[in-house]
């Protein structure tokens, strides 16, 4: 049991009574290296902690990197790995806040699909009593509701609708369904619509409307974010106050605390304080020990129940599951877990050999007592009965108490995700060219088609992404990680889900918003399309700067294709350009907003293996939320 948390009160006392002197922190740089600039004459000033991408690293904090867009000279910034790029409208250095906005005018859609990557940024919350009052912009915690209705609600509030505090989000609504934003303390029965379901809860910005209504407001297209210099790593060891000196552009200054008077002797109050703290430590240690043992007892009871559930499943499916090994066998296979191949939230992967024939294998050792065993049962029950050249083969497993392991065939070239990420240091590799890339993507498509059509029951993977695609010695792809998979009949492929599952950025729209269709095998098609676009993005020219990414990359691909422009990709010969366009067109078909507009994986394979001339350019996937009818897909 970790004793450090229990000693915190005593450590606090020592620091309080005997303060330690800390050297002031001061970081500076030559003003010639970090001049204050604007992307355009009416744009915001760019100075510390913000840093232009081509400036030296000491000019700003890495989380505040910005660049000037190529065409409009707009100041652009990426808030997280999945957010895309946001234009910055204003920066208030004294108030320590800046405003970003969505150029398409649908900020809620972007807020649904990403989280801020750093605690440096926080929404600027104004504590107003109403949704909009006077001339202040406000940020409110709202609940998004999907309401089945033919009514058209207003996109702004007025004194007549103010008591209801609801507002329509038109850019997320479709015919027959209205998405309404309302405050969390209001119930569905308070609304003028009966059939509503909750989509999500998030903060939304509102702005007052200039007009006849005193308290009228509408959804804003922008968002204010704040930062605090106290959260910079450079200030973590400052015992006083840490400030940014904006007059010198990029200097962090640590101001020491007010000196304390030293004690010349032990006073009665000091002795009482020490005795009180020691008593508190003893009581805290005793309480923590009791709590720890109770928690472990509950944990052991839950694990026994989980193990009984796993054993029952294994007994019911003896004829379908692969070979079972003891945990001692697992230790021998891995030579005492000597060689680790990778690590993730699920546990660790080790290199090993089968005891019967010495075949190299990869052994995934799950964390002790991780979850309730559902992912383990899913993996063994699903992948254990699959035999396909493009699906990783499960050779065995182990389940003893809280210790569980899965044994797979070894993939010497790791995952597709790691391979495309490391291309920058492996430019000389001739094994990863456009022809091989097309073969890999076609193999993935055939594997997914097999899951959807080749088994007795349709298998929906729900986590198709590059890191779940393993590559064998000949770079043949194999789909892995079936922990989120679900089974359904081929006749009725609609899936009922209580919560979204998958990896952010690859999740289909209907998985988290029922307005856009039902969850089905078409959700895997969407994830496949996003995977293909990510792989294409890894083949971009290395000489390009981030300003080429100012537009959401899939949208940039679509604009280049529809306007007949060349894609900024590494192309070794003329045939590569045609392969790249083929892959891009197929991917854009797969990420159509409505599931009915996406092709089946059988049609995807046909497009990948057919003639280039037979390909049809898909409609714009990024305008799908405003169109009245879903588009027609290629023939299945």
Uncertain residue segments:
1-30, 543-550
CATH topology of the largest domain: Transferase(Phosphotransferase), domain 1
Radius of gyration: 29 Å
- Give the termini distance in whole angstroms: 59 Å
Shape: globular
Give the CATH H-level superfamily of the largest domain.
Transferase(Phosphotransferase) domain 1
How would you characterize the largest beta sheet?
A: 7 strands, mixed
| Percentage of residues in strands | 15-25%
- Per DSSP E runs of 2 or more residues, the count of β-strands stands at 26
Number of helices: 12
Quick one: CATH class of the largest domain? Answer: Mainly Alpha
Which key phrases capture this entry?
636 residues; alpha+beta; 5 domains; 7-stranded mixed sheet; 6-stranded antiparallel sheet; 12 helices; 20% strand; disordered N terminus
């Amino acid at each position: 049991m970790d004793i450090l948390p229990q000693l915190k009160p005593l450590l606090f006392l020592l620091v309080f009574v005997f303060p330690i002197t800390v050297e002031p922190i001061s970081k500076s740089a030559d003003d010639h290296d970090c001049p204050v600039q604007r992307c355009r004459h009416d744009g915001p000033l760019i100075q510390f902690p913000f840093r232009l991408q081509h400036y030296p690293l000491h000019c700003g904090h890495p989380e505040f990197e910005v660049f000037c867009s190529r065409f409009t000279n707009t100041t652009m910034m990426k808030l997280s790995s999945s957010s895309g790029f946001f234009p910055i409208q204003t920066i208030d250095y004294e108030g320590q806040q800046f405003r970003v906005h969505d150029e398409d005018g649908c900020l809620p859609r972007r807020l649904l699909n990403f989280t801020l990557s750093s605690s440096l940024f926080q929404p600027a919350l104004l504590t107003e009593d109403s949704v909009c009052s006077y001339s202040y912009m406000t940020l409110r915690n709202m609940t998004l509701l999907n309401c089945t209705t033919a009514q058209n609600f207003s996109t702004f509030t007025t004194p007549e609708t103010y008591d209801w505090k609801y507002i329509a989000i038109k850019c997320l609504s479709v015919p027959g369904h209205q998405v309404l934003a309302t405050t969390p303390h209001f119930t569905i029965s308070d609304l003028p619509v009966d059939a509503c379901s909750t989509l999500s809860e998030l903060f939304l910005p509102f702005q007052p409307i200039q007009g006849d209504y005193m308290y009228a407001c509408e959804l804003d297209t922008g968002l204010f974010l704040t930062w605090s210099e106290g959260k910079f790593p450079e200030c973590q060891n400052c015992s006083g106050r840490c400030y940014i000196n904006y007059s010198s552009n990029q200097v962090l200054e640590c101001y020491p605390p007010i000196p304390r008077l030293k004690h010349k002797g032990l006073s009665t109050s000091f002795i009482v304080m020490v005795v009180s703290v020691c008593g508190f430590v003893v009581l805290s240690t005793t309480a923590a020990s009791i709590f720890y043992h109770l928690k472990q007892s509950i944990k052991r009871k839950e694990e026994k129940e989980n193990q009984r559930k796993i054993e029952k499943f294994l007994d019911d499916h003896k004829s379908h599951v692969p070979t079972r090994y003891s945990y001692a066998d697992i230790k021998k296979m891995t030579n005492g877990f000597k060689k680790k191949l990778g690590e993730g939230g699920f546990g660790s992967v080790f290199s090993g050999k089968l005891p019967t024939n010495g075949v190299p294998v990869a052994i995934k050792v799950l964390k002790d007592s991780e979850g309730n065993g559902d992912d383990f049962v899913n993996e063994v029950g699903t992948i254990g009965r699959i035999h396909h050249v493009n699906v990783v083969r499960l050779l065995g497993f182990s389940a003893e108490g809280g210790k569980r392991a899965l044994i797979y065939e070894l993939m010497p070239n790791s995952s597709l995700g790691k391979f495309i990420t490391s291309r920058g240091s492996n430019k000389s590799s001739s094994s990863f060219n456009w022809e091989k890339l097309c073969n890999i993507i076609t193999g993935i498509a055939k594997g997914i088609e097999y899951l959807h059509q080749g088994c007795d029951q349709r298998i929906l993977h729900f986590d198709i992404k590059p890191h779940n695609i393993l590559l064998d010695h000949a770079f043949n792809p194999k789909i892995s990680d079936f922990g989120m998979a679900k089974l359904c009949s081929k006749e009725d492929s609609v899936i009922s889900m209580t919560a979204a599952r998958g990896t952010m950025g690859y999740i289909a729209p209907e998985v988290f918003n029922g307005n856009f269709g039902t969850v089905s095998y078409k959700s895997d098609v969407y994830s496949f399309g996003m995977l293909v676009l990510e792989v294409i993005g890894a083949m971009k020219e290395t000489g390009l700067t981030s300003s080429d990414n100012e537009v959401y990359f899939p949208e940039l691909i679509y604009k280049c294709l529809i306007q007949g422009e060349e894609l900024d990709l590494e192309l070794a010969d003329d045939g590569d350009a045609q392969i790249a366009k083929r892959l891009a067109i197929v991917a854009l078909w797969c990420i159509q907003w409505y599931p009915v507009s996406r092709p089946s994986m059988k049609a995807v394979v046909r497009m990948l293996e057919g003639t280039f001339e037979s390909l049809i350019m898909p409609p714009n996937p990024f305008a799908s939320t405003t169109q009245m009818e879903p588009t027609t897909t290629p023939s299945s």
